Amino acid sequence: MFFFDPMYLLFALPALLLGLYAQLKVQSAMNHYSRVPAGKSGAEVARALLDANNLYDVRIEESRGFLSDHYDPMKRVLRLSPQVARGRSVASVGVAAHETGHALQHATGYWPLQIRTGMVPAVQFGSWLGPSIFFIGWLISGFAPKLGTSLAWLGVLAFAAVAVFAIVTLPVEFDASRRAKAMLQRYFMIDQQGMVGVNRVLDAAALTYVAAAVQAISTLLYYVFLLSGFSRRRE
User: Fold this and answer.
1) Buried b (16+ CB within 10 A) or exposed e, 77-96
2) Is 173 a residue of the active site?
3) What predicted TM-score, i.e. pTM, was given to this entire model?
4) Catalytic position from the list 44, 61, 62, 99
5) Please, which residues have CB within 8 angstroms of residue 105's CB and are 6 or more apart in sequence?
6) Interval 58-79 mean pLDDT
7) Where exactly are the structural domains of the chain?
């Protein structure tokens, strides 16, 4: 039988509200500044910024999906969604410059990016298996307390990698945006009015990573709260 724990709202609601607010901010900024021309396409700006930093070996490819833009450090490929790669708007330029910032991080050995990249396998494991192990242990604890609790704590540890990953992601994303803004101004890729739009787009996107971190941390704290309460009842 499944039941709803009202206490979960105490942990989840703030993160949910922040996430919704962040998504609204991103959609609003992208919708507005996708209609403001910048003169160059996202792919053109990315290529120019990569070449200006001697990253001639980093390829640019189009990826599928809306806002599927990312930098692949394993293959040294900067993938831009069609809207960003072909778009000649302030929003496209800002997103393309941000992803170029990740390529520059990789080239300069930016250590938070190295940590995040190394954590990917653990996060892929912990994001789906951690909660599964936790709830299996939670169910078992009703008739096998010691085994169930141990298994549930194992699930918490697995999911903790997700929370740590979300925290490490924050400086990586903030720094990529900082580099993007600096490069656009240094190489005169966009005028001052356009920079206002770039700042709003990238700052809104950064808020989504903050919301993701808050959500991961609040979920982890909820798991710990459940297990700590169960342990106290056993004593």
Assistant:
1) ebbbbebbbebebbbbbbbb
2) no
3) 0.89
4) 99
5) 113, 172, 175, 176, 179
6) 93
7) 7-36+89-234
